[in-house]
Design goal:
- The complex is a heterodimer of chains A (230) and B (236).
- Chain A has 230 residues and is an alpha/beta fold.
- Chain A has nine helices and five strands, in the order ααααβαβαβαβαβα.
- A five-stranded parallel sheet of chain A has the order 2-1-3-4-5, sandwiched between helices.
- The radius of gyration of chain A is 19 Å and the shape is elongated.
- Helix content of chain B is 36%, strand content 22%.
- In chain B, the strands form three sheets. In chain B, strands 1-2-6-10-7 form a five-stranded antiparallel sheet. A three-stranded antiparallel sheet of chain B has the order 3-4-5, with no helix packed on it. In chain B, strands 8-9 form a two-stranded antiparallel sheet.
- Chain B starts with a strand and ends in a 28-residue tail after the last strand.
- Classes of the chains: A alpha/beta (230), B alpha+beta (236).
- At the A-B interface, helix 4 and helix 5 of A face helix 3, helix 5 and helix 6 of B.
């Protein structure tokens, strides 16, 4: 599809706003974009010009998020800046929500996230949730202290692409082993990602997890690389 | 020479957490986004000031309660299977101190509230500030203990916590069994999680004229440990 120069410019500005986490014209950050329009102005403007939500998602929002991923992998930015971009992306997805509800715009797929049984730490899982949602994935967040049964129930009733498990203690990370085993026994095709402060690749291998990532971007990259867009 | 068991309450001001420490704690924020950090700090400041309830306490064990054998520290018949990293630092200590610190549960509750309202960035910032505050509480306690010990020529080793430097967090149960119940308002869940979550427990060795060594991060394989130091001695 061809766009006018203005629309191409608006899409590239939208990508930049996602990349830099520019929410709206009143945002005080990033400091070098003060008073410039942000996601909350540019996206409605594009919609008002009859640019389809799918074009906006693919040619603006996801381009911005992909740049964020590249900069993170290159060590040019760190988790806080990824979250700030993800927040702008979440705001954009909120504006697009009516189109998702109507079925005019499809997300990449559903993912389950849970902090494992015995563990009450929430913040790491929520950071992963924010980044995945910012990357165009739908997250079913089962919360904290989650057992196998709850995850298996969610797998039975939803079309799930992957499960992500979090733990912050060396005692609770051991519970991941049983949960991964139960998922693999019942849903062998579902990949399981694990993360959390005490984990490492060796432990992930021992419990047959498909992915260990020390950061949310790693899980987003894994999902994007392994599952094609709808 | 030092109380066998002691407890301190610190005000928020005593923790001395200022904007300079805030910026240092968030050095992974890009410069262009520091206004967001400062804005969030300003919005949360009065809540943090009013609700950070720092409490710290310790129990002191003299040499007659302690013995060592092959990476095992024994205190009053309770055995701790320390990692080689910790054991080689503690084994020259004649006396042992077990400590607990917390800042209470109000900040953690606020983090959950922010998460529920969808403000994950403020939640992330407050969570990290809360972690800094509990570490500062531990630093203040360390200063208190060291100043009491200095008068008799004793020095502290580094502090070590269950779950770090190869010491299993499952030893928390044995650790807490040596402290009064609900010491400093901290208790353990079945999975050895401390409640309130923003709490720190740990151990020091102490001895007359002891020379404090560096942490031995270079021989530890936990590459994402938050206390890990670079070859320049800076915590990354």
């Amino acid at each position: 599809m061809n766009f006018s120069f203005d629309e191409n410019y608006l899409l590239s500005q939208l990508a930049l706003c996602i990349e830099r986490g520019k929410l709206n014209s009143s945002s005080k950050f990033p400091a070098d974009m003060i008073s410039q329009p942000g996601v909350e102005e540019l996206l409605p403007e594009l919609l008002s010009r009859n640019i389809s939500p799918k074009i906006i998602l693919d040619n603006g929002l996801l381009i911005g998020m992909n740049r964020v991923g590249e900069k993170f992998r290159d060590g040019k930015i760190f988790i806080p800046d990824v979250l700030i971009s993800a927040k702008a992306m979440n705001a954009a997805m909120e504006i697009l929500r009516p189109y998702i509800v109507k079925g005019d715009l499809k997300l990449k797929g559903k993912v389950i996230l849970a902090t494992v049984k015995g563990d009450l730490h929430n913040i790491g899982k929520n950071l992963v949730r924010m980044v995945l949602e910012g990357g165009g994935w739908e997250v079913i967040d089962l919360g904290i202290d989650v057992s196998s049964d709850k995850i298996l129930d969610a797998l039975k009733t939803n079309d799930i692409k992957a499960v992500g498990l979090s733990a912050l203690l060396t005692t609770t990370m051991l519970n991941m082993k049983d949960i991964v085993r139960d998922i693999k026994n019942n849903f062998p095709e579902i990949p399981v990602a694990v993360g959390g402060a005490p984990l490492n690749q060796r432990f992930a291998d021992e419990i047959n997890a498909d992915l260990y990532s020390p950061d949310p971007q790693g899980m987003l990259d894994y999902l994007n690389n392994n599952f094609s867009l709808n | 020479m030092i109380n066998k068991i002691n407890q301190y309450f610190f005000s928020f001001n005593e923790l001395n957490f200022d904007e300079e420490k805030l910026i240092r704690a968030f050095k992974d924020f890009s410069t262009q986004n520091v206004p967001l950090l400062k804005n969030t700090w300003n919005q949360l400041y009065s809540f943090i000031q009013q609700n950070c309830k720092a409490v710290a306490g310790y129990r002191y064990f003299e040499s007659d309660s302690i013995s060592y054998q092959n990476n095992i520290l024994i205190i009053d018949d309770t055995q701790f299977n320390l990692s080689p990293i910790i054991y080689r630092d503690l084994k020259d200590a004649t006396d042992i101190i077990l400590f607990v610190c917390t800042i209470g549960n109000k900040l953690e509750e606020k983090v959950q509230e922010l998460v529920s309202s969808g403000d994950t960035i403020s939640a992330f910032i407050l969570d990290r500030i809360a972690s800094e505050l509990v570490e500062l509480t531990a630093d203040l306690l360390e200063n208190k203990i060291q100043s009491e010990l200095t008068s008799v020529g004793y020095n502290l080793t580094n502090r070590y916590s269950p779950g770090y430097c190869g010491w299993s967090v499952s030893d928390q149960k044995k650790f807490f069994s040596l402290l009064p119940e609900n010491f400093c308002g901290v208790r353990l869940t079945e999975s050895s999680l401390m409640l309130p979550i923003k709490s720190v427990s740990g151990i020091y060795g102490t001895a007359h004229n002891l020379i404090r060594k560096d942490y031995h991060c270079e021989i530890c394989d936990d590459e994402f440990c938050y206390r890990r130091k670079t070859d320049k001695g800076i915590i990354i």
